[in-house]
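Minutes, project check-in
Item: structure for the 87-residue chain
Input as provided by the requester:
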Amino acid sequence: MYDAMVIGSSIVGASAAYHLAAGGAKTLLLDRADKGRATAAGAGIVTAAMSGLGIADSWFALALEAEKYYPVLSEQLRAAPGRRIRR
């Protein structure tokens, strides 16, 4: 039995699953195993600067905050026991 299930390991889904698990919830992350999916290939280019044109101000503000949070999350992941994160 799980406390939480997250469907889709996009940047948002993976982050949600990580934070749930880090908070102590027994978490299941489900995703399709499609070869060549965009999340596997292009996650590094999802930034406010790359997607800022033509989106609502509230989404742009969220993207800016997420971009600022990325280095913090990267350090948390590097420090997590049993994890290997490449730079």
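Outcome recorded: The longest strand covers residues 4-7.
No further action items on this chain.
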